[in-house]
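Subgroup meeting minutes
Present: P.N., E.W., G.H.
Scribe: E.W.

1. P.N. recapped why we're keeping a running log of single-chain structure predictions: easier to compare across weeks, and new members can see raw inputs and outputs side by side.
2. G.H. added today's entry (220 aa).
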Amino acid sequence: MPSPNQDERPADLPIDMLVLHYTGMRTGAEAIARLRDPAARVSSHYVVEEDGTVFRLVPESRRAWHAGVSSWRGAEALNGRSIGIEIVNPGHDWGYRPFPALQMAAVCDLCLEILARHPIPALNIVAHSDVAPDRKQDPGEFFDWQGLAANGVGLWPRDSAPAAGAEPAALLGAIGYRTDLPLPMLLTAFQRHWRPERVDGVADADTLARLAALAALAGA
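Output recorded in log:
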């Protein structure tokens, strides 16, 4: 299902990020139509339907237009260095719901195939809400990041006690988040990915423990 919304990647950038989204539209067909509409100027490399069907819209060698204004681990404008996967789900505006097992299995298989082709670090397998926390909340707290990590896609840390005096903002920055945004906004984005049991933007003890564990894996 090729999309015209693509262009050349910058010659000097590696493909070292994988950004996962939800479509946030009422149906997968509507989402694919928009991602293929030249007037919309948005696209992704892949779309994964709720029944597990995978559509390729843009070749991995080309830049898809999925992340927009984005930042992670000091890099910006991430479309040039990333592969984007849109996962069909109506999202928070149209009746957000859990992702079916068949869909998650297809996402996992697709991610593993991509990782076999590109040396993408585990910490660079992120949510749209991680790289644009002031604008996005997808794929959201129902997405099974822990299950993906158990199968070799991304990270899911074990909790650990934060170092004495550790500041949440410093831990978030060490993981990769931009730190010029309000702390509750950043904490909410972190919780959507790595602590979905409670998405409230509050640095409670459990959130701090998960933050510290992930920052340790990031080398902080």
